[in-house]
């Protein structure tokens, strides 16, 4: 039996996804003003779905709305980068620990597939490697079977990706860094498959501490 086709996204969802893509790709730069009237014409929508999309992006901390019906892409700063790192340093290892304890065979299959799709991150590679990186970590969050933890970590990811993009443009990973990250991803997955919660937690904490999001704090403070 053929699967039913996926419904077309609403105009609000379409605008949200397009603006989010432009922000994460850096097409809309930090601090840049977004004219609602101009953007509505460009995307071929009314201001109603545009406004809905901007409110959603505002809730995620990607834009700021002002009283004049326009918006501005939020600026990156060291304080937010440090806050993101502090939260991820604690929650990502917890998710890995729970995933090792609670993963199902189906969870392991998703994690294995996401691991196989990983590519080295670089500023010139576009969004695809970032999306694959996100999918790998999301597969671990899902395997934790803790909906609140999943929601918290998922909500941090868009903000974190903007900081990853910044450091990729400022200080690209060396071949040694890329190999280290590859080994850490593999070790995290192996520990989860083996049900070794202690190792999964330990390797994930090491992975977060060596992450791009951690190193970007120094750049922003400088």
Verbal overview:
With 222 residues, the chain is mostly helical. The chain folds into two domains: 63 residues, Arc Repressor Mutant, subunit A, CATH 1.10.10; 144 residues, GntR ligand-binding domain-like (Four Helix Bundle (Hemerythrin (Met), subunit A)). 70% of the residues lie in helices and 4% in strands. The chain is built from ten helices and three strands, in the order H-E-H-H-E-E-H-H-H-H-H-H-H. A three-stranded antiparallel β-sheet has the order 1-3-2. Helix 1 crosses helix 7, helix 5 runs antiparallel to helix 8 and helix 6 runs antiparallel to helix 7. The longest helix is centred in the middle third of the chain and has 25 residues. The protein starts with 10 loop residues before the first helix and ends with a helix.
Key terms:
222 residues; mainly alpha; Arc Repressor Mutant, subunit A; Four Helix Bundle (Hemerythrin (Met), subunit A); 2 domains; three-stranded antiparallel β-sheet; 3 strands; 70% helix; globular
pLDDT < 50 runs, ≥5 residues: none
How would you spell out the order of helices and strands?
Answer: HEHHEEHHHHHHH
Taking Cα atoms only, what radius of gyration do you get, to the nearest Å? 19 Å
Neighbour order of strands in the largest sheet: 1-3-2
Number of helices: 10
Q: Whole-Å distance between the termini?
A: 59 Å
